[in-house]
Amino acid sequence: MAKKPAPAAPQSTTADVLREPAEVRYADQLEALRQNDADAPPSNWRMSPRSVLLYIVGGKTLKATISGKTTEVPITRKFFGDDGIVERAIVTLASERALLLVGEPGCGKSWLSEHLAAAVCGTSLLTIQGTAGTTEEHVKYSWNIARVIAEGPTPQNMIPSPTMVAMRAGGLLRFEELTRCVPDVQDSLVSILSDKAVAVPELPNDNMVFAKPGFNVIATANTRDQGVNELSAALKRRFNYVYIPIIGDQKTEVKLVQQRSAELLERYNLPMKLSPSVIELLATVFREIRNGKSTDGVSLKKPSTPMSTAEAIGVALDAALHSRFFGAGEVGPADIARNMVGAVVKEDQEDKVALKEYATLVAKKRAAKDKSWKDFHEALVEQL
After folding, report:
1. SS3 of 71, please?
2. Mean pLDDT of 166-181
């Protein structure tokens, strides 16, 4: 089967935008995978399911011709977790059922969704952000009102939604925070997922938009939002649920924090690195407070805030920025402690109790034997 030519990458550089989409930032890796793809991809996919999996989990270096030069391109890991989760997600997208990624806030649902879309259809930008204000028009289509008044409804006067654009291209629609939308908006997806079409009654002679092969939907939902706007039984049946757990392995979490914080430091042009010992301490604190138990067996109060890996990465970046602008220029345990309160105490001031308990029962004990923990403990007590 002849492969489709790779789409031209948008002309932008790191200096132009604060955050590049995955298909731009990892364009070399995507191109290397396409050039080395031996399997036939599904209809309208940019690469085979096996290559999509390799893009997400990484672990290989491929030879490819990039900008006219033959080079070796390392394929880095994008999702840190069970590879089986990624496999199930890819298989679902290759089927006629939509994919719903479910998990705690900060577990990587949107991150995985973005990379899946970038690898499968070449763009992660066909996105609907679900909110209480999302309407059926956002999901289906709207009109250029001024032109409709002057000319009446015509195909040229229609404003297609990301859904309709994805359907026409045979691409993937990303629907973020689906359960934040009201039921009527959620149910507008039922016919789209069942019939793979959108009806346009305003256009009697051109009243259906049919999806091309390859069209599908990746939605995300937070477990903490369950019950806010529960999906109907009809909509649930059209999704394959894939649950993404919080990273259970300490070494994997440390590696993730290290990689993502390094990428963020590069993006913010910060001339510094976080030492492995500082990242180890940060990951340890988050893990112990999240689990409600220290590695020494001390029971701890759990805060209401989800102590996700994404929050830990945020603390690492804040600590680096604080050290760069107001500190010695090198991130230490004290910088981590100074930025912990804002990550843990969000809606409920009582969550300070969890930090105080951790400082007293765990950090203070370790401070007697370890200087890093001593610096961390003193700075944390100061903040509380």
Report:
1. strand
2. 95
